[in-house]
Backbone:
């Protein structure tokens, strides 16, 4: 897994490198969740510097619901945000 990137195809990379007898089910399950945890733990990395678009992870789960209390507290500018044209 040295040099592997947390990007599209992450799960395929895991299976390629640690699938079958090359790895273990438990390690693969942990690594599958790693990308999500990393993605959501670095808020500033996925934020539009002009502030016109919300971070990409907003609206993807119950915690980051545009209508929820977390978004209202952490990103009040995007509370109850709707994508333009929708």
Residues:
């Amino acid at each position: 897994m040295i040099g592997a990137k947390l990007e599209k195809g992450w799960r395929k990379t895991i299976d390629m490198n640690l699938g079958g007898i090359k790895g273990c089910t438990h390690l693969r399950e942990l690594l599958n969740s790693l990308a999500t945890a990393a993605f959501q733990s670095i808020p500033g990395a996925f934020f539009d510097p002009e502030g016109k678009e919300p971070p990409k992870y907003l609206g993807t789960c119950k915690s980051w619901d545009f209508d929820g209390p977390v978004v209202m507290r952490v990103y009040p500018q995007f509370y109850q945000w709707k994508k333009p044209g929708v």
